[in-house]
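Render this sequence as a predicted structure.
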Amino acid sequence: MLFPAFMIGAAFGVLLVVGLAGTAGLKTIRPVIFSLAGSAVGLLAFGLTEVWWPPVIGPFILCPAIGALGAMIGRRKI
């Protein structure tokens, strides 16, 4: 159950960047890497706060939310 939540979170982050910036948003691989990292942090956050969430809903909320946040951070130029 955690792997599908991870993949949905990563895909949601990348699709959010593509939806907002078009294919030009993926000129570099940074949004993809940051989306994957954000989704992994979502899994970690779920693991740390597992008692607060229902078992099915928690990872499917945290992974896409933090994955999208990571992708948006990765899209920014330094």
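Summary. Helices lie at 2-21, 30-48, 57-75. The mean pLDDT is 91.
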